Amino acid sequence: MVEREDRVSLELSEEIIQSMEPGAVFRDYNCRISSIDFHKTSTCMVTASDDDSIRLYDVASATCLKTINSKKYGVDLVCFTSHPTTVIYSSRNGWDDSLRLLSLHDNKYLRYFKGHHDRVVSLSLCSGGECFISGSLDRTVLLWDQRVEKCQGLLRVQGRPAAAYDDQGLIFAIAFGGYIRMFDARMYEKGPFEIFSVGGDLSEANVVKFSNDGRLMLLTTMDGFIHVLDSFRGTLLSTFSVKPVAGESTLDAAFSPEGMFVVSGSGDGSTHAWGVRSGKQVHSWMGLGSEPPVIKWGPGSPMFVTGSSELAFVIPDLSKLPAYAIRK
């Protein structure tokens, strides 16, 4: 019964968000962390960083299990496949823009995906399937099957693309030029079935993401805006504003597991939490790093991870919550 009470009372609220502070912090990077991903059904987490390393963590024990170097190709974006020791990652060396399927277990390349001719800036895997999607500065979005080296589809865009599958893998979104285009994954050749405006913000798209239940989308842009939309109607629900990012930096943001809150980075390296319904800022954190952080929520967990020049696991401090203080 206590376990059930704990689980219910730890449903995210503004009070719990405001109590959250860095727990475990890894300061051994000495460079920018460019990507973070959680495996959905295990306790594994992976990071990519500008020192050309991929690091595998066990979230339950907050320990680094393995570091794999990719000195030849560099590494930028990384995503788990359905297997907790297999990832797909993009290069960052300026001369080879292929994607790679890598076994972290034995550090072996299982497949190369060649097709892009400039840096890949967006990477999203279809949940529970073999498909994934990548967007590049070469102004193409390519659709892939993990089992085949050649791309299965190509869409041309007019700008830097941000692309993402919804959680069921039935729909994907491509954002650029102030609009989000919605595609049926089974009939993408017919073009978008919906085009949503983000309120006149024409700055470059950075990331587009769906909430876990697929009802909401967020889009971040180079000018420092985080737009939250109803993914069925395209209604713009909220727009949050932070300091713009500079140069090749990316403004990252993520929904909390139940979609009630958005946590975003900022151009000044700070991190902010916003209420989706209220449209108000709930909390902010300084000093988690100097770079605009990449952000990922743990699956079904009251924890998010930020990565800039260091990696921080941000968790509730139960001593700040009256309900828990009384129990003690």
TrEMBL record:
Keyword field contains Methyltransferase: no
Family recorded in the similarity comment: Belongs to the WD repeat SWD2 family.
Gene transcribed to yield this protein: ULCS1
Source organism of this protein record: Arabidopsis thaliana (Mouse-ear cress)
Localization per record: Nucleus
Keyword Nucleotide-binding part of the UniProt annotation: no
Coarse class of the protein's main subcellular location: nucleus
Protein name: AT5G66240 protein
Biological process, per Gene Ontology: DNA-templated transcription termination; plant-type cell wall modification
Pfam families: WD40
Repeat positions for WD: 26-67, 113-145, 254-284
PANTHER family: WD REPEAT-CONTAINING PROTEIN 82 (PTHR19861:SF0), WD40 REPEAT PROTEIN SWD2 (PTHR19861)
This protein's UniProt keywords: Nucleus, Repeat, Transcription, Transcription regulation, Transcription termination, WD repeat
A cellular-component GO term for this protein: cytoplasm
